[in-house]
Amino acid sequence: MDTKLQGYWLGHSAFKFVSPKGNIIYVDPFLKDNPSTPDALKEVEKADFILLTHGHEDHVGDTLEIAKKTGCKVVGIVELIGLLTDKGLSEDQAVAFNKGGTVRFDDFSVTMVSANHSSSFDGKYAGDPAGLVLSFEDDLCIYHMGDTNIFTDLTLYGELYEPHVVLAPIGDHFTMGPQEAAYAVEMVNPNLAVPIHYGTWPPIDSDPNEFKEVLQEISDVEVLIPDVGKEFLNTD
Ligand SMILES: [Zn+2]
Question: What distance in angstroms lies between residue 158's CA and the mean position of ligand 1's atoms?
Fold first, then answer.
């Protein structure tokens, strides 16, 4: 019964977490059209929550389909959630909030922080892009940076939320690349950093080892380069 937090990277920016009480949480579930998601993981049968960093297709992904199938809550910034309800997301599944705000669920909470990027959905303005701080009761705090470049508030987020794990985009082209990402993570100063948003398509074929090397030169943050679909986090 007393299971702990489990985490799986599903490729690109997508994650699945299972909370200590068994809540199934997807972040940015871009799966079906994601070239790096293994076929066996493209179909979602059960979900309790979907958390969205912003409106771009490589993040919203299969959200509407999964929400319809599972009845899960969909959590994101006000404008994006509004566009999703226009597209058929049921109002009672929608959880719309904004930056600086925290929404609390069964055994975890989600705080929305800034990301320096852009955001649209279905050709429309989808609110600001965001980062998400997931805080699990009596367990880890995980900061998913969303798509972003480096910005000075990251130091404050490190002090305020003290995340154990940072999920950082390193792909370059659409987000920061490996070197800038290493400096961004150093500002947050977590225990562990996980590079994401790379290797999906040719323009973002960055080398996660470059991120690891730079980060290890400038900090003592540990770097984990997970295999897609394999459990990379288990606090049991
Ligand atoms: Zn993206």
Answer: 23
Q: For CA atoms 44, 49, 52, 55, give the dihedral sign.
A: positive
- Ligand 1 geometric centre to CA of 184 (Å): 17
Flag whether 149 is in a domain: yes
* CATH of residue 51: 3.60.15.10
Give the pLDDT confidence of 53-67 residue by residue, as tens digits.
999 999 999 999 999
Query: Cα(119) to centroid of ligand 1, in Å?
Result: 10
Domain encompassing residue 119: 6-229
Spatial contact of 44 and 26, defined as CB atoms under 8 Å apart: yes
Residue found by looking up tokens 């470049």 in the block: 149
The alpha carbon of 27 is separated from its chain's Cα centroid by a whole number of angstroms, namely 5
Instruction: Using the mean position of ligand 1's atoms as its centre, give its distance from the Cα of residue 236 in Å.
Output: 31
pLDDT of residue 1: 43
Residue type, 174: F
Distance 117 CA to ligand 1 centre (A): 9
Provide the number of structural domains found in the chain: 1
> What pLDDT does residue 159 have?
98
Q: Decide if 235 is inside a domain.
A: no
